[in-house]
Amino acid sequence: MAAISADSHVVEAEDVFIGLPERFGDDAPRVVGAGTLQDSIIIPSKGPRGVRRRMGFAGMRKRDGLDLQRRPGHKPEVDDMRDAEAKRILAMGYDGLRAGIRDGAYRHEDQDEDGIEAEFLYPGFFGLFSFENTELLVACQKNYNDWLHDYASASNGRLFGLAAIPIQDPHAAVLELDRVIKKGFKGGCIPCTAPPEVPYRDECYEPVWARAEEAHFPLSMHVGTNAYVPAQYRQKSPLPRDETFDYASTPNTVQRTLVDLMCRGVAERHPNLKFVVGEFNAGWIAHWLDRVDQGLLREHRFKSREFTGERPHEVWRRQFYATIEDDRPAVLTREIIGLDNLMWGSDYPHVDSTWPCSMQVLDEIFEGVDDADRQKITRDNVKALYGI
Fold first, then answer.
1. Pairing, β 40-43 against β 47-51
2. Domain ranges for the chain
3. Which of 125, 167, 196, 325 is the most buried (most CB within 10 A)?
4. pLDDT tens, residue by residue, 16-71
5. What is the pTM of this model?
6. Which of the four CATH numbers 1.25.40.10, 3.20.20.70, 3.20.20.140, 3.40.50.720 does domain 3-16+101-386 have?
7. Average of pLDDT values for 359-383?
């Protein structure tokens, strides 16, 4: 049974940044194509922001014969970028990526290699959501959306781009929603964390929520797509950085956002608006929803107020979705999270993608699970959400 990936990615071409340096100077992203920063996206005022060839590294695995080491039920282990063979492949730059990463007309070759019928596409360059200058933010995201539309349109209906929505400027966001909806986009992306001084509960976002709800246009919050956080809100921890802890606690970055949307009026005012939590996996959600239910009731009791609204888990079931990759715990707790609220994604072509062994990973994480449940999570739910 072919799967539909609810979470795949593009590797942005240089065209996405055309005209931005001329308008915005050193604050604008551009691609450096020579020297030690071969095919890197850089912002001169801030330094390197992403390496395009690394964003597409999963697509180099099979072609270049790298060993696909993995544990049962898990995606391939992350390749060591310091390895001599990896360095050789990375040195090829953008032109060394598989044809389907560079051109949507050839992406079907990568899909067929992995048993994938169609993909929904997120950005590869997450800095797209974090520009301090909102005029630059809007201009860059409009460029990206136009390029993404062209890339996906070449796929004969097997690629669906998720448009970037510049929600930090709500007026511009509504205009861009109108524009991308007319272009045929099925959904969009907003930052997984709002600026702390303007959380998503703020009334300034109401026109955005209303327009997306009216158009049945789901809004996704993908890992890494943080909005700009002003310097005064950044705090250095006295503890040394622990990369294992940072990776394991990734869901923390979206949990506050979810509470804001679920418990502070947004979902209640817009009951038909759908949100997607992208690439945070979901095995943590069953317990977390129970804690949010408890927390909201405790908050009302401590303030001597009777709680009469919907429980957060009820709001989640109605309006929220999460994508998974190799998340067996999510599959095992699917009835608590919501069987209709889970969608699978391959994360192709990022370095920790399940490609090219997605079908083996799915067989393993769905071991002992009814075929009907597997079909919902790997096909039916994403089709129903986006109306394809």
1. antiparallel
2. 3-16+101-386
3. 167
4. 999 999 999 999 999 887 555 567 888 888 876 666 666 777 766 655 555 566 77
5. 0.93
6. 3.20.20.140
7. 98
Helices marked H in 165-270 = 170-183, 206-214, 243-248, 252-263, 266-269
Q: What's phi and psi for 266, nearest 5 deg?
A: -65, -55
Cα–Cα nearest to 191, from 166, 162, 216: 166
Q: Residue 356: what are its φ and ψ, rounded to 5°? A: -100, 25
Residue 64 Cα distances to 25, 110, 356, 388, angstroms: 38, 14, 13, 35
Question: In this structure, are residues 165 and 177 in contact, taking their beta carbons and an 8 Å threshold?
Answer: yes
Q: What average pLDDT does the chain have?
A: 89
- Cα dist from 352 to 29, 78, 187, 261, 357, whole Å: 25, 6, 24, 29, 12
Provide φ and ψ at 321, rounded to 5°. -135, 155
Name which of 223, 227, 173, 222 is nearest 197 in CA terms. 227
Phi, psi of 12 (to 5 degrees): -60, 135
Report which residue type is found at 215.
A
CA distance 185 to 182: 8
Tokens 């301090």 belong to 132
For 113, other C-beta atoms within 10 Å of its C-beta total: 18
Longest dimension (CA), the chain: 65
Q: Is the peptide bond before 349 cis (omega within 30 degrees of 0)?
A: yes
3-state secondary structure of 233: helix
Model confidence over 268-291: pLDDT tens digits? Answer: 999 999 999 999 999 999 999 999
Strands 187-189 and 342-344: unpaired
Hey, CA dihedral for 239, 245, 247, 252, is it positive or negative? negative
**Amino acid letter, 163:** A
- Specify the DSSP class assigned to residue 96: G
DSSP state of 309: S
Q: How far apart are CA 310 and CA 268, in angstroms?
A: 9
